[in-house]
């Protein structure tokens, strides 16, 4: 078990390559100091694309195994999530390039890459020590990125709020870990068994609080709107997609790994099902009255965490597959939404929904991308969001949780209202003075490339969902 | 030998005091201190469990070392953010950091 084999390098190939890229960015920042900072963005995005391709071909596990002395799992679930994080980081790097202050500094790309390494490890860790370290490796760079614009009052406030909430939540979860270690004598997820009743309840609640923070479940969601509003928009997009997906990967590993069957399984699925109901309802209802589009998307992303959780509590192969598929569609959609907002507010200088009046005339292309992204968030066919919701609710019905599917469908209907309100402002309202042609919104090349990829991806996942769903279902095989 | 439960009670008490501090204090630095108390409670737990249950392995010790290394990194970032807030706003009181609400 402790002997070194080449397959162990393959297990952490994406992380090794990411770390190499970190050093490359560090070196080239010094070399290119006097020149345009956007070169670093192209380097990061191009490097991530290369990493994505290389590890997609070389890093695919043949069969599930545990490597590095039981620290990491090398299986399909980890693989597909790693690809998702690297893809998300690549597009975030593209969005960051023309973002004020973020794009000109090498640090922002380095922090982005380090956070991606942390997420990769979160999705693969098989040991509580590794898991805690991975969660913090993800969180600490994200705290800094959220507060990256030091002179901006909102950004620093967002960074501090994120840090205070985040540190508290991860410590609560860590207390749960220490109890698990104490009462089972081991930190390896495979070896942990045998809890007495009250203890298991406590551990489930402590862990639900910690992970609930990461994926912004209802009673632990207070940080999300403030942080998304204050943080630089590309960072908010990354937080709401890749960071959240990493939290779901941990849910599947930790809860399904620790309590796969029996009365404790019923207990945590019920706990999380109640949290999911609360999350969907709170997120959608508060989103209705938002006037700032970033806050609206924050509440919408809270609601989406609720939908995805519906699949996780189904505790079946279909459930895990559907969550993974949901996250693929959601990452594409929400990254596109935040990218559009970043591109728009860079020119228009406002995140208020009312400022989007006449956008379809100011930039037809951007408005079209917004139509695709928001209809996918709503859950309209033929976009990815629709198929994803169908699978998640199907998993709930299969697991005899029909009430949960009904709650989810009702909530989707509430969601239609606020997404379409934004589209109404974009397409039907006119700008003040009705001279939209005089205020065009030019798209720079990184935005154009990224939004094209994402819009095409949303359509692709929605129309040809078979291969994607098969890949997502393969993730489930290593768990049960 | 002192029973294991004594240590666990101390750790639980420390954790609760820390949590109370995080939830009740207004000053951002004090909130960070509360988090530190909670982390130290976890460390007491880890070392106790290691000593009483599994002294032949190093798992508990390694876990504790990693926890306080991470805690140090977290506090460094936290204090840096607090300083940058103080430069902008001339306050570190959490109640006054209310630019964004609802």
Q: How would you describe what is shown here?
A:
The complex is a heterodimer of chains A (480) and B (102). Chain A is mainly α and 480 residues long. Chain A has two domains: 1-161 and 227-256, no CATH class; 260-480, no CATH class. In chain A, 75% of the residues lie in helices and 1% in strands. A two-stranded antiparallel ribbon of chain A has the order 1-2. Chain A is globular, with a radius of gyration of 21 Å. The termini of chain B are far apart. Helix content of chain B is 76%, strand content 0%. At the A-B interface, helix 6, helix 7 and helix 9 of A face helix 1, helix 2 and helix 3 of B.
Topology:
The complex is a heterodimer of chains A (480) and B (102).
Chain A: H1 6-11, H2 13-31, H3 38-58, E1 65-67, E2 72-74, H4 76-97, H5 106-124, H6 128-146, H7 153-184, H8 197-214, H9 223-230, H10 233-258, H11 262-287, H12 293-312, H13 317-348, H14 359-362, H15 364-378, H16 384-398, H17 402-427, H18 445-463, H19 465-477
Antiparallel strand pairs in A: 1-2
Helix pairs in contact in A: 2-3, 2-5, 3-4, 4-5, 4-10, 4-13, 4-18, 4-19, 5-6, 5-10, 6-7, 6-10, 7-8, 7-9, 8-10, 8-11, 9-10, 9-12, 10-12, 10-13, 11-12, 11-17, 12-13, 12-16, 12-17, 13-15, 13-16, 13-18, 13-19, 15-17, 15-18, 16-17, 16-18
Chain B: H1 4-24, H2 28-53, H3 59-89
Helix pairs in contact in B: 1-2, 2-3
Number of helices of chain A: 19
| Rg over C-alpha atoms of chain A, rounded to the nearest angstrom | 21 Å
Please report the distance between the alpha carbons of the first and last residues of chain A.
22 Å
Q: Roughly what percent helix of chain B?
A: over 70%
DSSP, total strands of chain A: 2
- Shape designation of chain B: elongated
Number of helices of chain B: 3
* Oligomer status: heterodimer
Strand content range of chain A:
under 5%
* Average pLDDT number of chain A: 89
Structural class of chain A: mainly alpha
Low-pLDDT stretches of chain B are none
Biggest beta-sheet profile of chain B: none
Largest binding interface between chains: A-B, 42 and 45 residues
Number of domains of chain A: 2
Query: Helix/strand-derived class of chain B?
Result: mainly alpha
Task: Supply the number of structural domains of chain B.
Answer: 1
In CATH, the architecture of chain B is: Orthogonal Bundle
Low-confidence stretches of chain A: none
The CATH top-level class label of chain B: Mainly Alpha
Q: What's the helical proportion of residues of chain A?
A: over 70%
């Amino acid at each position: 078990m402790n002997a070194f084999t080449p397959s162990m390098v393959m297990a952490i190939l994406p992380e090794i390559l990411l770390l190499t890229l970190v050093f490359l960015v560090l070196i080239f920042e010094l070399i290119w100091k006097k020149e345009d900072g956007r070169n670093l963005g192209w380097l990061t995005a191009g490097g991530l694309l290369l990493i994505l391709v290389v590890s997609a071909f070389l890093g695919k596990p043949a069969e599930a195994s545990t490597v590095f002395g039981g620290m990491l799992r090398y299986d399909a679930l980890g693989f597909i999530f790693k690809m998702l994080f690297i893809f998300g980081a690549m597009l975030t790097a593209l969005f960051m390039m023309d973002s004020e202050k973020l794009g000109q500094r090498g640090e922002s790309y380095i922090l982005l890459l380090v956070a991606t390494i942390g997420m990769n490890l979160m999705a693969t860790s098989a040991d509580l020590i590794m898991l805690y370290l991975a969660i913090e490796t993800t969180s600490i760079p994200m705290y800094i990125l959220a507060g990256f614009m030091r002179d901006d009052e909102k950004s620093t406030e967002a960074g501090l709020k994120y840090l205070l909430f985040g540190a508290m939540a991860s410590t609560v979860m860590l207390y749960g870990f220490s109890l698990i270690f104490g009462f089972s004598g081991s930190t390896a997820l495979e070896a942990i068994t045998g809890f007495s009743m009250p203890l298991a309840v406590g551990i489930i609640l402590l862990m639900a609080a910690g992970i609930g923070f990461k994926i912004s479940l209802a009673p632990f969601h207070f940080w999300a709107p403030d942080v998304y509003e204050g943080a630089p928009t590309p960072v908010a997009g990354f937080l709401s997609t890749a960071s959240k997906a990493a939290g779901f990967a941990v849910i599947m590993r930790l809860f399904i790994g620790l309590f796969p069957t029996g009365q404790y399984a019923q207990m945590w699925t019920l706990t999380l099902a109640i949290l999911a109901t609360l999350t969907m309802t709170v997120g959608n209802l508060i989103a209705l009255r938002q006037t700032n589009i970033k806050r609206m998307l924050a509440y919408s992303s809270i609601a989406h965490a609720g939908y995805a959780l519906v699949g996780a509590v189904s505790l079946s192969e279909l459930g895990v597959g559907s969550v993974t598929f949901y996250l693929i569609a959601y990452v594409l959609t929400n990254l596109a939404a935040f990218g559009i907002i970043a591109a728009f507010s860079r020119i228009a200088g406002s995140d208020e929904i009312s400022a989007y009046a006449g956008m379809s005339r100011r930039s037809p292309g951007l408005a079209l991308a917004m139509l695709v992204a928001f209809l996918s968030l709503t859950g309209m066919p033929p976009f990815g969001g629709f198929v994803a919701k169908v699978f998640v609710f199907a998993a709930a019905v299969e697991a005899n949780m029909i009430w949960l599917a009904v709650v989810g469908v009702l909530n989707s209907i509430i969601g239609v209202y606020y997404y379409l309100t934004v589209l109404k402002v974009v397409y039907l309202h006119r700008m003040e003075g009705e001279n939209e042609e005089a205020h065009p919104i030019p798209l720079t090349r990184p935005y154009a490339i990224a939004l094209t990829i994402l819009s095409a991806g949303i359509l692709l996942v929605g129309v040809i969902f078979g291969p994607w769903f098969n890949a997502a279902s393969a993730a489930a095989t290593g768990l049960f | 030998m002192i029973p294991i439960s004594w240590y666990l009670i101390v750790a639980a008490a420390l954790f609760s005091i820390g949590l109370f501090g995080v939830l009740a204090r207004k000053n951002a630095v004090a909130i960070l201190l509360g988090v530190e108390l909670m982390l130290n409670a976890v460390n007491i737990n880890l070392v106790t469990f290691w000593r009483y249950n599994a002294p032949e392995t190093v798992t508990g010790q390694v876990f504790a070392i990693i926890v306080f290394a991470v805690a140090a990194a977290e506090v460094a970032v936290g204090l840096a953010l607090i300083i940058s807030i103080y430069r902008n706003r001339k306050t570190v009181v959490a109640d006054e950091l209310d630019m964004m609400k609802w």
